[in-house]
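job 3f2a | input accepted
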Amino acid sequence: MHVGCVSRLHDMYRVVWVLLALVFSAQGEIVISEFLADNSSGIKDEDGDRSDWIELYNNGDDAVSLEGWWLTDKASSMTQWRFPAITIQPNQFLLVWASGKNRTRAGYPLHTNFSLSKGGEYLGLYRPHATS
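job 3f2a | predicted structure (132 res):
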């Protein structure tokens, strides 16, 4: 391949990458901002239990729907616990209890179907269409 063609191809890929980055940043970025795997003296859930918890944060400029997103504590299973149809507004946090209670009703406290190990383990957040 001619050097000029390679250079133009590289520039084209760079433009596509920049456009994709702009699309994803405009949609907002959801991150795991904090988690607690041994809640022995912290906040309590609605049942009065000191369950583990995961905090998500939308650091983007737009609201992000979490419908179809997944949380997991197993690297081998990206689709362990699915979010209901809820939205995180820009610069807002969402607390999800990692209690094993498996509660997914929008508008109520959310609880994963797993808890976190205080000894350390995998924790993943996946966008829709993740595959295990």
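job 3f2a | The CA atoms of residues 30 and 58 lie 5 Å apart.
job 3f2a | closed
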